Amino acid sequence: MERKVSSERFRSFYSILGLLLVGTVASLLAKIIYGVESVGRDGRLRPFRKPLFEVFSMFFGMSLCRVLEWLRPAASAIAVAESSSETVVADPLDQVLQRLPWPWHGFFAKAHRWLSAIAPAATHIILIPATLDAAATMLMCTGLLFAPVSVYQMLRGSMLVFCAIFSVTLLGRRLHAYNVLGVLMALGGISAVGLASVAGEHDLEARGALVLGIMLMIAGQAMQALQVVAEEHLLQNLLLPPMRVVSYEGIYGIGLCMSVIFPLAYILPGADYGNRWEDTVDSLVMIVHSRALMLILLTDAVSMLLFNMFSMNVTQLSSALFRTMLETLRTFLVWIIDLWIYYRWSEGRFGEAWTPYSWLQVVGFLIVVAGTWVYGMHPVAIGPQVIETADLASVPPEHVHKSDSGVHLKHESNQRILDGDQVNYRTLDTTTEWISCTCC
What we know:
Distance between the termini: 36 Å
Helix content: 55-70%
Shape: globular
Mean pLDDT: 75
Order of helices and strands: HEEHHHHHHHHHHHEHHHHEEEEEEE
Structural class: mainly alpha
Number of strands: 10
Radius of gyration: 22 Å
Strand order of the largest sheet: 8-9-10
């Protein structure tokens, strides 16, 4: 018994430490990579300002979660049992495609048949949230071009506001007074963060770019909230382990990047090489000419794999309040290291400067954290059901299934919950796990 307790403590320690370290490194690298210089197609040295390729790297990291699942015998056993279940017999994407007008129905139906040859039909519905995920990550990574990484981290709390709006308008939820209070607190905190960032920038051109970056990030969080709502509505009957859902989103995201996003970016006008939105060939040339870029992109992809692994362990071993505090600590770690990089390591080339308005940014972020916690303190009613947002202890007994493998939520309690910038995904008879669907 003592050995088991000691093992659990060690698992908790390395999971928490790993989550903090991996998440912090991934967030910092997402910004630093834009300042790394390499030789492109034109033979000139210039910075790697390629947000779409970074999106591809993150989807690649998500797809690696399939490897992690293969290394987890318990998850593999669940996957085998669920894949053989007679419950999943129809392809839910067919129902969506049938509603499309001609000629879109024919075009997407052909693509659907091609997809059926490489992935289980029942998982094709994941294409919809994967598309929303790609749009959200593109907006966030593009916004990061113009804004500091600390603002990037803090504005993730805005997803709470959009989740509340979409859950009411699209899912018919009823918010209680404390939910509304949490949303209002988050709005106030986000406004303070944005105001402090803009006020601290004195150059008018840089200030305009910063405002654009903030708007893109908030739009990205709105898109990610729509993804959360779509997954809750479309994937609630998909009997797959959460890590496999993440891996399929990564695989489908890679397909979207290669078949839609990269070709469109090559055709559309923009500020990249050749006056394109983003030249993928130029991106590859720059990567080949820079070991630093190779290392950063590889680290970014591996961090997505490790982040999901540590997130699963922390979710299983901690409460919602602790996870919120952990995300708060991670954001402050990112900010502190970013300040150190600016003043001590790069001499102003990378990182973020401290301004007289930075204290307002701190206060705004703390208000966002408090609003997130207030919003998630109590259940939110959905018609006759109750969606729980705390620990298993708060779930009614009739919604809990106990077995030799542990305590699990039954199908009626399937849900997705916002915890900071993470999303909890509870599947049929599986333990609660985090899904990190976008950049760390």
